[in-house]
Amino acid sequence: MNKYVCTTCGIQYPGSQEEPERCPICEEERQYVNPDGQSFTTLDEMIRSGVYQNTILQEEPGLYSITTTPKFGIGQTAYLITNGRYNVLWDCVTYLDEKTIRTIEELGGIDAIAVSHPHYYSAQLEWAERFNAPLYLHRDDRNWVMEQSEGIQFWDGEELTLKEGISLHRLGGHFKGGAVLHWSQGGILLTGDIIQVVADTDWVSFMYSYPNLIPLPAGKVKEMAEKVEPLSFHKLYNAFHRVIAKDADQAVQRSAARYIMALEGKLFST
């Protein structure tokens, strides 16, 4: 039995004798099927190839980034908050080898895992089981979970406190259960791509589909901005190693206002 992994989105599937015939995550309009066709691998094959490795970097005190190189799947970055005796992995990557495990254990291990939305579910159960950590996913996205487990903790509503100073907030938008993580001690908001840092890193944007460039309605963007406005943060990290290094709270509000003006035809004439 192999746990096959989609090479386009990085999602791991339950054990089976044969490769899945399709990947529902990729077939949905927010993602895409590779033009060369659907293909699968396994984590064991990735490790045996000797091609991949995880780069773990300290971004600032108490915050580490985890990125797989060369790029695999969507290519997202995960983040590890080392908060005293309680470490949280935010978002996830597919690749997990013994070197990665040793490095994370040296940093204190993982006490909880939380994922922003289904595109980053990757090999989340592999990570959760290896570190014996509960996995927190918003219930609104449970239909996108390809592999079920008693270790998954589906949370409801708009907010969940994992530990004092570390909380999850449902913003919706990109996915109905799309969430961000607020780390108040660090003054940081981790957003996956629920809020996306753009090329000009004084700004963010909001999309229903990033690869297919499907925007969100103005009303939804306004709602998302209102939900993060009460949170205190000055830095924002997205899923692709882009950072707003100062006044990130203002950048989100300014960007939402610009986005809404553009959709309403008030920003420019063309």
TrEMBL record:
**Metallo-beta-lactamase domain residues:** 75-241
Q: Which CDD domains match?
A: rubredoxin_like (cd00350)
Q: Which InterPro entries match?
A: Metallo-B-lactamas, RibonucZ/Hydroxyglut_hydro
Read off the Gene3D superfamilies from this record.
Ribonuclease Z/Hydroxyacylglutathione hydrolase-like
The record, for PANTHER family, names: METALLO-BETA-LACTAMASE FAMILY PROTEIN (AFU_ORTHOLOGUE AFUA_5G12770)
Protein name per Swiss-Prot or TrEMBL: Metallo-beta-lactamase superfamily protein
